[in-house]
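SEQUENCE AND FOLD
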Amino acid sequence: MPTFRLSARRRTGRQGRPFHPLARFFAWYVSSQMVFESAIWILFLQDRGFSLAEIGIAEAGFHLAPVLLEIPSGSFADLVGRRWSLATGSLLVALSSILLWNAHSLPIAVIALFVSGAN
């Protein structure tokens, strides 16, 4: 009678140490969520002379981006792959940070937060 043997081989990295397939993604995700400006951007814009109403309008742009871009961003990820989609998102975060740092008018602040919300 044939016997079947189940092998529980663990995947290993280059140095022979076991790793989880999502370990690099988890490390990227944790590091990408440590954005310094997310804690102080309202105070930063107030220091730049924006009123709370103007900051609220810019915040609306931030929340409008996921609503408008959810399906197109999913199509983009399907078209080019997850890795390139995540890289593009990281570039958008960098672009939004640069725009927000240089925001001296309401349209630039709205665009910066819209781009940030698109990630």
